[in-house]
């Protein structure tokens, strides 16, 4: 009875001995309650998820760099830049510092990958990870992001709803992205000529976007109709689709 809460329960039991089910419940709920602070458990869980996120993103980023190093377009450009900067000449040293062909090849590969990292802006899900994007920092910075969004939304309402100003390029692209239901990283991964097409067709206007959306759906249907794999799939669904039982001998 050293705990204040248990003393209250004990005094209540003395005053109300007939409520024995309630006494049993409070007794076992306190005996079986976890001893670890829930806040510590949540903090450790968030930290573990954040560490996993960061290393997972680094792995995806390195995979993207390794893939781009095998693409002839980027590899030739990176090799040319390395030659202009004299980086490849340093790998072919003579005399006592002479190395094997395998060591030279590995060093040249690292040089090409470093140039690709510095010269190519990878966007989307394979972009270079940033520590502020992990869950822990997102939770800590949530009040800041919320205030920033409220200020931005108020500015949007004042400029374009109340004053009736015309949209700029960034505002038009923002509206288009919202219509397409794409995240910022997904939209940033699009090619520049695609964004220019969006602006030329004035897709920030809802009616224009609906026309564009129907055109894309029709084009996708045509591609699927001409795709041999989809033809085989439709033929299989028609003749041997799921749910059919056949007794044909192999």
Automatic annotation (TrEMBL):
Q: Which InterPro entries match?
A: DNAJC25-like
Main localization is membrane
> What's in the GO CC field?
endoplasmic reticulum membrane
Where in or outside the cell is it found? Membrane
Q: Does the keyword Magnesium apply?
A: no
Annotated GO biological processes are: protein folding
PANTHER family of this UniProt entry?
DNAJ HOMOLOG SUBFAMILY C MEMBER 25
The entry's protein name is: DJC25 protein
Task: Provide the species name.
Answer: Cochlearius cochlearius
Name the gene for this chain. Answer: Dnajc25
């Amino acid at each position: 009875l050293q705990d204040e809460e248990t003393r209250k329960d004990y005094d209540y039991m003395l005053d109300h001995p007939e409520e024995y089910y309630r006494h049993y419940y409070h007794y076992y709920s306190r005996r079986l309650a976890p001893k670890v602070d829930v806040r510590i458990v949540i903090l450790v869980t968030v930290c573990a998820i954040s560490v996993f996120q960061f290393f997972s993103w680094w792995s995806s980023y390195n995979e993207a760099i390794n893939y781009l190093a095998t693409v002839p377009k980027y590899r030739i450009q990176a090799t040319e830049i390395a030659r202009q900067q004299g980086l490849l000449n340093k790998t072919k040293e003579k005399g006592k510092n002479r190395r094997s062909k395998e060591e030279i090849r590995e060093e040249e590969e690292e040089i090409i990958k470093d140039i690709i990292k510095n010269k190519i802006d990878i966007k989307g899900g394979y972009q270079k990870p940033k520590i502020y994007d992990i869950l822990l920092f997102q939770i800590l910075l949530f009040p800041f992001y919320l205030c920033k969004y409220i200020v931005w939304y108020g500015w949007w309402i004042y400029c374009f709803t109340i004053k009736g100003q015309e949209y700029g390029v960034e505002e038009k692209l923002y509206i288009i992205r919202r219509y397409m239901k794409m995240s910022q990283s997904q939209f940033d991964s699009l090619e520049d000529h695609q964004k220019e097409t969006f602006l030329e067709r004035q897709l920030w206007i809802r009616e224009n976007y609906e026309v564009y959306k129907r055109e894309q759906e029709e084009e996708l249907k045509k591609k699927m109709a001409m795709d041999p794999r989809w033809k085989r799939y439709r033929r299989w669904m028609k003749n041997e689709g799921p749910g059919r039982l056949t007794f044909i001998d192999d």
